[in-house]
């Protein structure tokens, strides 16, 4: 999936890019502006540029500078489709979104007089202003030393692709097509390639609580795979249900572990043992930080590197053990995967 963030000056044509990507390319649209307008309505404020700036900055100060973009990104991921997040105006939002694979930032600009004529023609309630007010509003949003406030200039400077929209629709559409041809082809790295194989293995899992898979690799060759499931010959969770064991963690959280199943990492290591495959110096790919038991097996079998998609909320013990054992652990995403009361 591709996520495109769009930033740019007022009236430059962010919506035009959105319309093209939605109608012609099937992207799903999420708007920072719409998100803020909903909050403005909840607060009973007038829908104008002053309210949008005030409320947007307030949300970033209250939660985090990247709060709005991260909230929209989470909703975008739920769709399983290519998505657009429109009206990014804070550098912290960009920094956070850069942690995710396949994120690209588009910026769009045009001559100020052309942009003003466009906002007058579209007739939005927030755009019913004079040219002088239009320029003043933009300057207010253009730079700031406060990390919670808007800084369009810094956002535009960080864009992967910048569009100049002084021409007609056809010119802009041609520019978009040129850029899309560059970003839609992505040759995966070796880590991405093997992680995708681990995700494919997870589709064989027989416990719907957590369908995870594992691939163990050495010298760019797959040695063995594994996935979550009951021991050979025993009933599967998908057939008879889960068998839970409650664990209360040091942070007070509670996890109900399914003790009917064998973890993907354990199954892969067992398969290697049965086939006489040495794992010394290998790399293991899995969905999230291995549990403590899996970590101990990984250490003892000689694996030297572990690559995870995400962090497990109770994975610190495993990370500490890996560090002590000299095993490198890396994460695709700096996100915590957590199962509440499951």
Describe this structure in words.
This protein has 342 residues and is an alpha/beta fold. Helix content is 44%, strand content 20%. It is built from 14 helices and 13 strands. Strands 6, 7, 10, 11, 12 and 13 form a six-stranded mixed β-sheet that branches. It has a five-stranded parallel β-sheet with strand order 2-3-1-4-5, sandwiched between helices. Helix 2 (32-43) crosses helix 3 (49-62) and helix 4 (67-79) packs parallel to helix 5 (91-97). It is elongated. The mean pLDDT is 90.
Considering the chains and any ligands shown, give keywords for the structure.
about 350 residues, alpha/beta, six-stranded mixed sheet, five-stranded parallel sheet, 14 helices
Number of helices: 14
Order of helices and strands: EHEHHHEHEHHHEHHEEHEEHEHEHEE
> What would you call the shape?
elongated
Determine the N-to-C terminus distance: 28 Å
Beta-strand portion reads: 15-25%
Give a short synopsis of this structure.
Helices cover 44% and strands 20% of the residues.
């Amino acid at each position: 999936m591709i996520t495109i963030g769009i930033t740019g000056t007022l009236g430059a044509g962010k919506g035009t890019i959105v319309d093209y990507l939605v109608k012609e390319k099937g992207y799903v649209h999420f708007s920072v502006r719409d998100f803020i307008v909903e909050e403005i309505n909840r607060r009973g404020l007038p829908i104008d540029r002053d309210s949008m700036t005030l409320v947007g900055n307030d949300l970033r100060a209250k939660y985090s500078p990247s709060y709005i973009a991260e909230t929209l990104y989470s909703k975008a991921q739920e769709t399983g489709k290519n998505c657009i997040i429109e009206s990014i105006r804070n550098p912290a939002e960009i920094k956070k979104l850069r942690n995710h694979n396949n994120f690209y930032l588009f910026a769009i600009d045009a001559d100020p007089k052309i942009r003003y004529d466009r906002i007058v023609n579209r007739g939005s309630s927030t755009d019913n202003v004079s040219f002088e007010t239009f320029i003043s509003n933009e300057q207010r949003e253009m730079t700031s030393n406060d990390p919670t406030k808007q800084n369009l200039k810094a956002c535009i400077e960080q864009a992967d692709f910048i569009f100049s929209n002084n021409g007609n629709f056809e010119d802009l559409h041609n520019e978009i097509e040129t850029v899309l041809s560059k970003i839609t082809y992505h040759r995966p790295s070796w880590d991405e390639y093997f992680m995708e194989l681990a995700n494919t293995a997870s589709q064989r899992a027989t416990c719907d609580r957590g369908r995870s898979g594992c691939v163990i690799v050495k010298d760019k060759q797959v040695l063995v795979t594994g996935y979550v499931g009951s021991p050979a010959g025993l009933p599967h969770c998908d057939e008879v249900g889960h068998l839970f064991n409650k664990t209360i963690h040091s942070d007070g959280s509670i996890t109900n572990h399914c003790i009917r199943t064998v973890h993907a990492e354990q199954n892969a290591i067992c398969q290697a043992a049965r086939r006489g495959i040495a794992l010394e110096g290998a790399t293991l790919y899995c969905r999230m930080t291995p549990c403590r038991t899996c970590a101990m097996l990984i250490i003892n079998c000689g694996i030297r590197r572990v690559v995870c998609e995400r962090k497990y909320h109770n994975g610190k013990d495993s990370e500490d053990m890996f560090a002590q054992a000299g095993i490198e652990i890396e994460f695709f995403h700096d996100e915590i995967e957590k199962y509440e009361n499951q």
